[in-house]
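Researcher: We plan to redesign the surface later, but first we want a full-length starting point. Tokens attached.
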């Protein structure tokens, strides 16, 4: 307003000078100088305007440099608050944080430090509220979502983890967190929510084999709950070497008396991953099978894994059950040649006693224990789990032979 009034005054002065005209004569010594009143007024006006412009520039520069210390104070207070949070000095951290908030406002880092300060004071509920608020308001940062995720891990709250992952994947890719959330939904049988995470993982991960494994486990668990044969088929086609997918799909086929289709499924899976439960399911696939029928079926599936000890050992058990001791002994000896496990050696000893033969001498028999073990974290379970309860790995449990001792079994 002041500049506007000055401008009106200068314009009025200039107009009056031009209207009245006239000249001003100055005598300087013996010389005379004549000035037009209008020219003089214009000169004075320009000089005053230039002076005002210079002063305005100086004031602007002064304001600019006056604002820098405010930001500097805010950053210094923020750094002090962060250091005190690390040192767990709640009082100093609270004071520094108040100063940082005064100078910087409610920026995400200030809110995050407020949440950390609440955690130091063991106010988990208040900290969770701050992080939830950050998840709703922040768009380009994920401080609140990551903090809520870490808080969910500490408190073993799967719902907090899912909520934080929902906030994170809406603004960033975060494939590891999405996989963690998928594992939780599989564990909780929340398949509608899990499908959203699967779609997100399809877009963010280029490892097709990993995606196929996760999707197969997802469909397998969903089929277990719904007994949907189509889902079981999709799971098996995605991951035929996953024993439990094959077993479940074959079981659904056998319930509908589709034994031939069930045998194909078991054979295909046994070829990729020989397992005792697959062999046993195949050799019993039918109605009222005799011992000879079971042996024939066992011989057939054994051709899909010619170098494995499992079919020979299982055939020996069938023959021993039928008191076909010479045949059982041949199977057991073949299995022992391929794998020197102590329980096979004991079967050979038992069969030799049934035949009243001199027992053989076998050295370097290995004492083992078969357990399901997570390939990621090493957690052990007595049965196969679709999701590891420790690291939330999906489909990571593998049947592992744990060598207990390197024993020497001598039968004499």
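Model: Full-length starting sequence:
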């Amino acid at each position: 307003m002041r500049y506007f009034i000055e401008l009106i005054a200068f314009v009025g002065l200039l107009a009056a000078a031009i209207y009245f005209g006239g000249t001003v004569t100055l005598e300087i010594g013996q010389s005379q100088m004549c000035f037009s009143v209008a020219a003089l007024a214009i000169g004075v006006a320009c000089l005053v305007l230039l002076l005002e412009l210079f002063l305005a520039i100086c004031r602007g520069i002064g304001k600019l440099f006056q604002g820098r210390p405010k930001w500097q104070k805010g950053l210094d207070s923020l750094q002090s608050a962060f250091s005190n949070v690390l040192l767990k000095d709640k009082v100093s951290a609270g004071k520094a944080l108040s100063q940082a908030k005064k100078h910087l406002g409610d920026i995400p880092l200030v809110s995050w430090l407020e949440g950390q300060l609440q955690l130091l004071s063991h106010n988990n509920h208040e900290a969770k509220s701050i992080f939830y608020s950050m998840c709703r308001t922040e768009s380009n940062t994920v401080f609140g979502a990551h903090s809520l995720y870490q808080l969910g891990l500490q408190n073993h709250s799967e719902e907090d983890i899912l909520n934080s992952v929902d906030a994170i994947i809406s603004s960033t890719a975060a494939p590891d967190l999405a996989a963690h959330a998928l594992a939780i939904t599989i564990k909780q049988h929340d398949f509608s929510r899990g499908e959203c995470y699967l779609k997100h993982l399809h877009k963010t991960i280029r490892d097709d084999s990993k995606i196929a494994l996760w999707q197969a486990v997802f469909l397998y668990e969903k089929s277990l709950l719904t007994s949907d044969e189509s889902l079981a088929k999709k799971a098996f086609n995605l991951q035929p070497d996953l024993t439990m997918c094959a077993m479940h799909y074959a079981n659904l086929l056998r319930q509908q008396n589709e034994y031939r289709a069930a045998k194909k499924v078991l054979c295909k899976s046994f070829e990729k991953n020989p397992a005792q439960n697959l062999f046993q399911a195949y050799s019993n696939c039918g109605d009222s099978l005799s011992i000879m029928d079971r042996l024939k079926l066992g011989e057939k599936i054994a051709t899909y894994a010619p170098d494995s000890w499992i079919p020979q050992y299982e055939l020996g058990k069938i023959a021993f059950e039928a008191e076909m001791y010479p045949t059982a002994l041949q199977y057991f000896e073949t299995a022992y040649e391929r794998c020197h496990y102590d329980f096979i050696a004991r079967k050979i000893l038992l069969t030799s006693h049934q035949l009243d033969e001199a027992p053989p001498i076998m050295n370097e028999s290995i004492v083992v224990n078969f357990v399901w073990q997570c390939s990621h974290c090493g957690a052990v379970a007595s049965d196969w789990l679709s999701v590891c309860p420790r690291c939330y790995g999906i489909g990571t449990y593998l049947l592992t032979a744990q060598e207990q001792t390197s024993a020497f079994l001598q039968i004499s």
